[in-house]
């Protein structure tokens, strides 16, 4: 049972890995005709180039979910985590949304994931889709203007 996500951060790259086809003349060079991957790639692209905590933060919610399901299995048996996973799959696959004014609101999903008390960015600005500081959709002001017909 893992509390913190596993570390999948690469710190070094081997030049003569045995899992890739290599040239028969020089074993450190990849054989581009056998690999069919578009040619030789620099070793700098094979390392992450990111902070080691970034992968842990990206996998944080899934690791916590797996930990919760493991605890439910140990306490209540296999039926409880199976029931929770089936309920979550039903909620994710349904089109029913009683809160029609907030398209994409996942109130049922938040309850099943024990996040109903958390206030995320999407809860404050639903449908904003801010990527890199640029708004990629309708924000709060746009939805007010649309509802008032301005």
UniProtKB/TrEMBL annotation:
Chaperone among keywords: yes
Keyword Chaperone: yes
The protein's name in its UniProt record: LADA_0D03598g1_1
UniProt source species: Lachancea dasiensis
Listed InterPro entries: Ump1 (IPR008012)
Keywords, ordered alphabetically: Chaperone
Similarity remark: Belongs to the POMP/UMP1 family.
GO cellular component: cytoplasm; nucleus
Sequence segments annotated as region (Disordered): 1-26
Pfam families for the chain: UMP1
GO BP, one annotated term: proteasome assembly
Signal peptide: none
């Amino acid at each position: 049972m893992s509390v913190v996500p596993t570390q999948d951060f690469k710190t070094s790259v081997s030049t003569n890995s045995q899992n890739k086809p290599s040239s028969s003349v020089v074993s450190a060079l990849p054989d581009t005709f056998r690999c069919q991957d578009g040619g030789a790639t620099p070793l700098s692209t094979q390392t992450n180039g990111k902070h080691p905590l970034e992968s842990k933060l990206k996998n944080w919610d899934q690791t916590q979910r797996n930990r919760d399901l493991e605890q439910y299995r140990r306490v209540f048996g296999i039926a409880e985590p199976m029931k929770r996973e089936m309920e979550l799959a039903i909620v994710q696959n349904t089109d029913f949304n009683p809160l029609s004014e907030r398209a994409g609101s996942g109130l049922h999903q938040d309850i099943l994931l024990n996040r109903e008390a958390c206030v995320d960015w999407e809860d404050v600005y639903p449908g904003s889709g801010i990527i890199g500081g640029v708004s990629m959709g309708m924000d709060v002001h746009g939805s007010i203007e649309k509802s008032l017909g301005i």
